[in-house]
Amino acid sequence: MLRPTPFDLATGTLLGVAAPPPRRPVPAGVPDPLDALDAAVLAGLTRPPCVVSFSGGLDSSLILAVAVRAARREGLPDPVPVTWRFTAAPRADESDWQQRVIRALGIGGSWQILRADDDLDLVGPVARRLLHRHGVVHPVNLHLHLPIAELAAGGALLTGAGGDQILAGWRRPPATSLRGRLWWLRHTARTRQGPAEVFPWLRATVAREAHRAQRAEQRAEPRRLRQRIAWHTRRRDLLMTCSTLAALAAEHRATAIQPLLDEAFLAALALRCGDHRGIGRDRLLAEIVRGALPTEVTAPRRKARFLEVFFRTPTREFVRGWDGSGADEELVDAEVLRRLWSQWPIPGGTASLVQQLWLAANPPDSVRRPERADIDVEVRS
User: Fold this and answer.
1) Measured between alpha carbons, how far apart are the two ends of the chain, in Å?
2) Sequence-ordered list of residues with C-beta below 8 angstroms from that of 310, at least 6 positions apart, any chain
């Protein structure tokens, strides 16, 4: 399993892009992108239970729809969509789109819903199990897949990992709506902030280094889709996410599959749409699907926000009681961090520090057995 470095944890960023591999000729007979996705999910369907981490967002909806279509064509068991529902987190609520997609696909009978209150907090009961087993991993919210991987034991776990990078990227097309223009103005204002504003908890020299590297990587994202795909698939961020998902699934004798990062799908997408520059997610999905899936699967929807899910009571209690010990003094200004953590909500960029410092204060040998969350599982019929 690939692991974050102390610099990654202190800065809350995961920067770096691997060197491009030697150029290879485009293989003959590259399939249509949707057919390539079909083949990618089929590898999971032939190893039941085939569990799909389904949030109701565009990426997981696409994966679920393709898996349902492939399963019914091949006479295989339906995939099992597994969804989290959260209390007191209205910005993370995607239940309406979840219902629409499930109804359109006719797969309600196998749908499983997990319900969480403080369960998925950064240092809540589910995260503690993962932290005591593996230490801090990337991304910091990956523990939400632990109960899903357990449901996939002996089978396959399908996720929409890579969708935000491959289908969207950072370079958005020009905004055509008022909401889009407002987002762009806020985004531009954030990118103009200096190191001390973006990383106030870091030592000054470290903040400047992190800020410079982050800005450089954001500017380096190619505009043309073909190059953007090749660039994002080499980023440490995505490589480490896939590595952690694979290790998590393997612990439960399951195979983790990321269809949106499948080599054949990426080759087909680059061949079909690779010359596009600044293409929006909606248009790209339309070109991939070409009307072959229900409209509910690819219809535009609001992007959910999950800070309310991961920053809850356990995190609040820990940061308020933190005594300043355990932080890497060469990277982090502990006094500034304590001051930032005395207010709520705390900066999102310090999430990995929350986990790192909680683990330092609560090592695995300090408890007799890892905590196991009592997750409420609802099977829809």
Assistant:
1) 37
2) 120, 121, 122, 140, 141, 351
Do 259 and 63 touch, CB atoms closer than 8 A? yes
Arithmetic mean of pLDDT over the chain? 91
Label residue 89 left, alpha or beta by phi (over 0 means left) and psi (-120 to 50 means alpha).
beta
Question: Which CA distances in Å does 215 have to 74, 133, 191, 212?
Answer: 47, 34, 8, 5
Long-range contacts of 344-348 (CB under 8 A, 24+ apart): 344/316, 345/307, 345/311, 346/311, 346/315, 346/319, 347/200, 347/201, 348/12, 348/307, 348/311
Where does the pLDDT of residue 370 fall: very low under 50, low under 70, confident under 90, or very high at 90 and above?
very low
Q: For residues 288 and 166, is the Cβ–Cβ distance under 8 A?
A: no
Give the DSSP H/E element, type plus range, for residue 338: helix 334-341
Alpha-carbon gap, residue 112 to 193, rounded angstroms:
43
Residue 348: C-alpha distances to residues 130, 214, 312, 315, 317 (Å): 20, 16, 12, 12, 16
What are phi and psi for residue 11, nearest 5 degrees? -85, -20
How far is residue 63's CA from residue 52's CA, in Å, rounded to a whole number?
A: 8
pLDDT exceeds 90 at position 187: no
Count of alpha carbons within 13 angstroms of residue 161, beta-carbon side: 24
Average of pLDDT values for 370-378? 51
Q: Is the pLDDT of residue 372 over 90?
A: no
Instruction: Report how far residue 259's alpha carbon sits from residue 37's, in angstroms, rounded to the nearest whole number.
Output: 6
Helix, strand or coil for residue 153? Answer: coil
Q: How far is CA 204 from CA 189, 217, 254, 323, 325, in A?
A: 21, 20, 44, 22, 20
Whether residue 48 has a cis bond before it, omega within 30° of 0: no
**pTM (predicted TM-score):** 0.91
Q: E-assigned strands of 127-215?
A: 156-158
| Type of residue found at 276 | H
Which CATH homologous superfamily contains domain 6-379? HUPs (3.40.50.620)
* Alpha carbons within 13 A on the beta-carbon side of 118: 10
Radius of gyration for the chain, computed over Cα atoms and rounded to the nearest angstrom? 21
Residue 371 pLDDT: 46
The greatest distance separating any two alpha carbons of the chain, rounded to the nearest whole angstrom, comes to: 61
| 3-state DSSP assignment of residue 373 | coil
